[in-house]
Amino acid sequence: MVRRNPFTLIEIMAVIAIAVMLMALVVPAFSGMAAGRTPSTLGSQLRGALMMTQGTAVTNRKYAALLFDLAPASSRRQSCRVCFVQPDGSDYKFLSWVAGEDWIRLPAGAVIAKITATGGTSVSLPNAGAEPANELAKVKSVPDSTAEVPALIFSPLGQLEAPANDLYFHIVEGQLQDGGIQYRTGHNDYAVMPNKTGLELHRFTGRTDYL
Q: Residue 29 — very low, low, confident or very high, per pLDDT cuts 50/70/90?
């Protein structure tokens, strides 16, 4: 008795064609979902770095700084690293790296467009192609850096020492490229950006909250 193949070649090809069409519909949707999560992912990693820096200052009873490399042309662009510093007049001077810690490369697909003392959705972001804006303190004599490096300074008591005010981090979808910020939305209107994450760093408690 001849056993018949349960599926014909035409039927198999039809199933494959349907599967390809479904993939074409599903993959962009998942890509969009992943892109939408990127600002929150960056915000979560940044919050963890801020908490680690505060904990380092309190545990060691020293001034600790979270350095930021936000220069578009830098090979470490949008990275941060913890170090010990000391007050030097109105500035801060690098003392040493924290053992076991290296530069933390924040995830691509989102950008810290602005760090400012002003919160709210009416904040004005830098134009596309510009560098990220920040109101951070500066640390000098950082190894492998020819200029002063933007930083947040925590005191041995865990308070935000410098800048001497609450800070707001505005994180949006985009990329930090050689030419500056490229917004995924194509504009810099923070109020109407669909996917964004905000963090508030409280000066007196050193606590970081989501907005």
A: very low
The CATH number assigned to the domain holding 125 equals 3.55.40.10
DSSP the chain: -PPPPSS-HHHHHHHHHHHHHHHHHHHHHHHHHHHHHHHHHHHHHHHHHHHHHHHHHHHHTSEEEEEEE--TTSTT-SEEEEEEEEEETTEEEEEEEPTT---EEPPTTEEEEEEES--STTPPPPPTTSPPEE--EEEES-TT-SS-EEEEEE-TTSSEEESSS-EEEEEEEEEEETTEEEETTSS--GGG-SSEEEEEE-TTT--EEE-
Residue 150 pairs in a beta bridge with: 138
**Domain assignment of residue 169, given as a range:** 9-210
Model confidence at 46: pLDDT above 90: yes
Instruction: Read off the tokens for 8.
Output: 């014909």
Q: How many angstroms separate the CA atoms of 140 and 106, rounded?
A: 23
Residue 108 to residue 19: CA distance in whole angstroms: 31
- The tally of domains found in the chain comes to 1
Alpha carbons 28 and 167: distance in angstroms, whole number: 36
Cβ–Cβ under 8 Å, residues 107 and 116: no
